[in-house]
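ok so i was messing around last nite and threw this chain in just to see what happens. nothing serious, just curious
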Amino acid sequence: MKYVDEYRSAGIAHALSGEIAALVRLGETVRIMEICGGHTHTIYRHGLEDLLPAEVELVHGPGCPVCVIPMGRVDDAIAIAEQPGVTLATFGDMMRVPGGRGSLLEAKARGADVRMVYSPLDALALARNEPGRHVVFFAIGFETTAPATAVTLLRARTEAVANFAVFCNHVTIEPPLRAILETPGLLVDGFIGPGHVSTVIGTDAYRFIPDQYGRPIVVSAFEPVDLLQSVAMLLRQRREGRCEVENQYTRVVRREGNPRALAAIDETMELRESFEWRGLGSLKRSALRLRPAFAAWDAEALYELPGARIEDPKACRCGEVLTGQIKPWECGVFGTACTPERPLGTCMVSSEGACAAYYAYGRLRRPQEPVVA
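result:
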C-alpha cells in the first residue's frame, strides 16, 4: 500500500475483522493492551472496538507522555516560570496539565512568561531572538521526543547559546512495562507496541516481554488497518502457540532502531536513579537527566526547585486508567466534574489521553449489555 487512504479502507478493515473473529474461540476472553495513547485515539476515532468480537477486549496502557508526568514536576516547572527574567517554553498539552499550584496556563495568567512551542528548536530560537531572557524548555516524552531535545542541546553547545536551558522530564518505555507485567493478577494476554517510540529504540528492545514474561507483542503503526492487522497478528501467535516480538510497522520501524538518534541521547543524557510516575509511583532508572557535561544548560542545576511529591486528587483515577485497571467511564468524575474544559487529571488533558479519547468520541457510558428477547 502507498497512500494513507488505503490504510483506512473499509473493505480491508472488514476483512481483517472477519479474520480476527475466526482466530478467537467462542467464550474466551483475550485482553490486549495498546501501550501508546495515539493508538487509543485511533481506536475510538474510527470505531475499531466495534469491529472486534466480544472475546477481544482492548486495555489502555501508560504510553502517553503527558499523562504520566506527576503533579510535583508541574509545580517545579511553575517555579521555574515564575523566576524573574525567565521564559518557560513547552508543548501545548503541558500548559493545561494540573499541578498542586494549578497549571502552567494559570501561572501565565498570574504573570509568568509561559509560551507554547512545537519543538525544542523553537525554544532555542526564542533564546537567540531574546538574549535578555533566559529560556527554559520543559522537555517531556518517551524516547520518541528525546532525540529532538538531544540535538537541540548539542546545537546550543555548539552555538554557545548561554541563555537556554532544558528542564528534562524524558522517560523510558521499558520500566513502566515491567511494572505493569509484574502487577499481581495481571490480566493482559498481549501488547500492541508503540510505533513512534519503536522508530528510535527498535523492536529488539521488547525482547524481554516474551522472553521473561511470556506475552507476545506486535509493534504497530497508527492507522485503522494497521491496528486491526496487529490484533490479528497477536491472535495468530496465540492460536499457533508462539510468543514473539513481531513488527507490523515495517515501513518505518527497524529491528535495531535509529542508531544516530540513540547516540545523540546517549551523548547528552543519562538515566536517573529513580523518577516518579503518575499511577506507577517511583520507578528505578526509568527517566533521563542531562549529563554533567551539559550542566550549563540544565535547569535543575541552575534553579532551586520545590521537588515536592503531590498526590493526585482523590476523585481522579488517572493512575488506574494508565495501568489498564479501569476504563475511563469507571471513574466517578469522568465527563462530569472532569472534562476537557476543566480537567482534574492528565488523561483528560492530553491529546493522547484515554479519557480525552473516550470523551471526544462519545464513549461516555458503560457499554450496554445486548437485550435478550
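not much to say yet. Confidence is low (pLDDT under 50) at residues 368-373.
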